[in-house]
Please model this.
Amino acid sequence: MSARGALAAAIALVALVALGGCRAGDDAAAFTIRAGAALRPAPAPPPLAAPAVRALHLADFGDRTRQQAAVAVAHRRAPFDLALFPGDNLYDCGPDARLPGAASCVFAPDGNAVAPGFAPPADRTFARHEEPLAPLAAAPHPAQVWLALGNHDVAPCGGGASIQRLKACLEVAHASPTWAMPGRHYVVDEGPARFVFVDSNLLGGDYGGFSFDDEVAFVARAAAGCGERLCFVVGHQPPALAGTHRDEPRQALQAARTARLLAAGRGRIRAWLGGHDHDLQHLRTAEGLDVLVSGNGARARPGERFEVASPGASLLFASGRWGYGVLEVGSDGWRYRFEGGDGAPLYCCAATRTGPCEPVSCAAAPRPPSGP
Model:
């Protein structure tokens, strides 16, 4: 049987297809598949060694929906240390570049951070993303909220290609307790983890006068700190997909640039945390990189069927369910799980410091006895 035939058989065996008559927003029967090792997950591993960091992963969040409210509930249920939002933060067209004073936003000579002295105009567009996240910044367990640029964040929307640089500048310049983007690319170190935020819009081609060579050089510098820490790339457009955008990674320019960016990581990148497809996916590239897509932040695509992944990639799990990703990183490895809006686990995987994230049972492993 061909690889495609095997995947089709797995889909036929385990897919749950949404039935007619479901209420709007009821996704209990949303299309979900498991393939390969995910059909026979290993027992849940023991808890991670301390110190450990817990991060929310959720892209494509920039529109008001039921899913946005579920994020605040998830934080109250089990607080996050960080919240990672890899792009498409403001649908459909990014910040409002027409506001008085907006055009004064310019980048510093490095083309990454905003030049000093700029005060962003008040832009209610940002409320779309920030207001549902207010509980994440509240005491007693405020989470750090970090963002990356997505394609909608810099979309021209009739304004011409020249406006893309300005929109990127306005998103970098904006700052609040629920919005931090100190540059188009930057690094966040937290406990045993390093998060390398990239401007993945450059994978599909140059825009705004930004240099892809600078992006590659940045990743190379960031990877130098990935010896003691486990490193994760946070970027909107991932190197493999199985949904609507699955053909993009196979385009010659994007494939070549993605390979070059990952090569700059010198094999030290443990996983790519992305979005772009509006669903939940765990894929693995031919090179063994785990790709985790958590793009069901606001706009679901219930028609996704995930029959074919990007060339060379294997699909382990995919679902159209409402949900989000939870990454936990310890000194001895890392764990990842997709949760539904009610907090119920949908899929889990676990990795050591050097191996891939293999599917495991989401049931908690028993703790060893604490004494005689």
About this structure: Residues 1-26 have pLDDT under 50 and may be disordered. The two ends are 54 Å apart (CA to CA). The chain has two domains: 1-18+29-37, 47-304. The domain at 47-304 is CATH 3.60.21.10 (Purple Acid Phosphatase; chain A, domain 2).
